[in-house]
UniProtKB/TrEMBL annotation:
<dbReference type="InterPro" id="IPR019987">
    <property type="entry name" value="GTP-bd_ribosome_bio_YsxC"/>
</dbReference>
<dbReference type="Pfam" id="PF01926">
    <property type="entry name" value="MMR_HSR1"/>
</dbReference>
<feature type="domain" description="EngB-type G">
    <location>
        <begin position="22"/>
        <end position="195"/>
    </location>
</feature>
<keyword id="KW-0342">GTP-binding</keyword>
<protein>
    <recommendedName>
        <fullName>Probable GTP-binding protein EngB</fullName>
    </recommendedName>
</protein>
<comment type="similarity">
    <text>Belongs to the TRAFAC class TrmE-Era-EngA-EngB-Septin-like GTPase superfamily. EngB GTPase family.</text>
</comment>
<dbReference type="GO" id="GO:0046872">
    <property type="term" value="F:metal ion binding"/>
</dbReference>
<dbReference type="GO" id="GO:0005829">
    <property type="term" value="C:cytosol"/>
</dbReference>
<keyword id="KW-0547">Nucleotide-binding</keyword>
<dbReference type="InterPro" id="IPR030393">
    <property type="entry name" value="G_ENGB_dom"/>
</dbReference>
<dbReference type="GO" id="GO:0005525">
    <property type="term" value="F:GTP binding"/>
</dbReference>
<keyword id="KW-0132">Cell division</keyword>
<keyword id="KW-0460">Magnesium</keyword>
<keyword id="KW-0479">Metal-binding</keyword>
<dbReference type="InterPro" id="IPR027417">
    <property type="entry name" value="P-loop_NTPase"/>
</dbReference>
<dbReference type="GO" id="GO:0000917">
    <property type="term" value="P:division septum assembly"/>
</dbReference>
<comment type="function">
    <text>Necessary for normal cell division and for the maintenance of normal septation.</text>
</comment>
Amino acid sequence: MKVNQAEFIISAVGPSQYPEDALPEIALAGRSNVGKSSLINCLISRKNLARTSSQPGKTQTLNYYKVNQDLYFVDLPGYGYAKVSKTKREEWGKFIEGYLLNREPLMLVMQLVDLRHPPTKDDIAMYEWLLHMGVPVQVVATKADKIPKTQWPKHLKVVRETLGMPKGVQPLLFSSELKLGKDELWSILEQAIGY
Ligand code: GTP
Ligand code: MG
């Protein structure tokens, strides 16, 4: 897809704030700091439209970005951030769960994991839950630039096996830094929204 226009739309704290134009939505899930906002910026070729930070847990709302008149990226708050209180985490869970289960225009969830490390308990729980609920998901293993190329296959295998990904399903190798996997990911997204 050629990105002619990309803009921030809203930081939504509840369903009444979700856009009503019924464009397809693609959500990003993943631990705080895994690189969700960076991946959005990479896909739309902008330096900092989706705010990135080295301060984990910064994004606490559902952030909508509109691409052309074609789709929304929905940047979900990062999970598994220890410094957030338990009550806050539970609130977060309900809010996100409601979105993922009930949002009609939602076409695909990109679940980001860090290629360097085996997926965490939170990653596994999230992935299993998405599969169980029948939410379409593409696992994206990012920050590939942080490890040598020769180790990519080994790390991809750990991601696959730790998440228990079904046969024939692969994580997508990605790096926002290198723009690695960008074209392949766009074609997966286009397919998901029937572009
Ligand atoms: P929250 O909004 O807190 O949930 O974090 P996030 O998942 O949106 O992460 P963000 O995109 O803000 O990135 C976190 C940090 O990782 C930043 O310092 C980024 O520059 C860095 N980062 C993200 N993606 C990559 C990547 O592919 N390679 C490298 N080397 N660094 C990355
Ligand atoms: Mg973010």
